[in-house]
Specification:
This is Cytidine deaminase. Keywords: Metal-binding, Zinc. One of its GO terms (molecular function) is zinc ion binding. It holds the Pfam family dCMP_cyt_deam_1. With 161 residues, this protein is an alpha/beta fold. It has one domain: 3-Layer(aba) Sandwich (Cytidine Deaminase, domain 2), CATH 3.40.140.10. Helix content is 32%, strand content 20%. It has 6 helices and 7 strands; from the N terminus they run H-E-E-E-H-H-E-H-E-H-E-H-E. The relative contact order is 0.18.
């Protein structure tokens, strides 16, 4: 029997594979009262194949891990989820986020303001300030190991980047 955390994280891992990002395919599922209320992946703007056609912007600019994370063609899965929920009138308050990667600082702030009460993730982030902030703000933030996970399917660098 698969526990709930593993079930939802595996769903987020599957959703992540829809991303057109060349560096890291990220996915997220938000659950409230044991029901899925939002699912997203990091979306390359303006269309999901911009990086495939033009190459990774961060690579072209030689930006290393954690440097200028805002310089990217994609919208993070967390930011997209909060935006889409607002557009659709869906409250994320008291929701639980299951994410393929720990949130960056900006996404952590969005999740906190949206009222997310717990965050579970699979991959660590190069910059831990997002999880540190969430924990300080009273949002439970926990890394979960998934058995038989294949990070090479979603990450160019299987160290988590």
């Amino acid at each position: 029997m698969v526990d709930q955390k593993t079930f939802w994280l595996k769903k987020a891992l599957k959703i992540a594979l829809k991303s057109g990002c060349l560096r890291g395919k990220r996915g997220l599922v938000i659950v409230k009262n044991a029901k899925e209320i939002m699912k997203t992946f990091n979306l390359v703007m303006p269309i999901n194949d911009a990086c495939i056609k033009g190459g990774c912007l961060r690579d072209k600019l030689k930006l290393g891990l954690g440097k200028d994370p805002h310089v990217c063609r994609s919208i993070h899965a967390e930011a997209r989820a909060v935006s889409e929920a607002a557009k659709k009138g869906i409250s994320l308050e008291d929701g639980v986020a299951y994410i393929t990667c720990a949130p960056c600082m900006n996404c952590a702030k969005l999740l906190y303001i949206a009222g997310i009460r717990e965050v579970y993730f699979v991959d660590a982030h190069a910059d831990e300030t997002g999880t540190v902030l969430l924990n300080k703000m009273g949002v439970k933030c926990v890394r979960v190991e998934i058995k038989n996970d294949n990070p090479e399917l979603r990450l160019r660098d299987i160290t988590g980047q």
